[in-house]
Amino acid sequence: ILSIWGWGGLGVILFLVTFGPFAIFYLAFYVLCFVGGGFAVTLLFGKTNSEKYLERCEHSFLPASATGVPKALEEIKRENGSIKIDRRLTGSNIIDEPLQQVLQFALRDYIQYWYYTLSDDESFLLEVRQTIQNALIEFAIRSKEVDWQPYFTTRLVDGFATHLHVFRKAQPRTEDSRQKKDTSEELIETFFEVEVEMEKDVCRDLICTSTKDEEAFLRDLCEVLLYLLLPPGDFHNKNMRYFLREILAKGILLPLINQFSDPDYINQYIIWMIRDTNCNYEAFMNVIKLSDKVAELEAVRDKAAEELQYLRSLDTVGDDINTIKNQINSLLFVKKLCETRIQRLNSGKEVDTLKLATNFGKLCTIPLDSILVSNVALQFFMDYMQQTGGQAHLFFWLTVEGYRVTAQQQLEVLRSPQRDGKRQNNQTKGLLHVAAVGVYEQYLSEKVSL
Question: What range(s) does the PXA domain occupy (predicted)?
Answer without folding.
Answer: 92-278
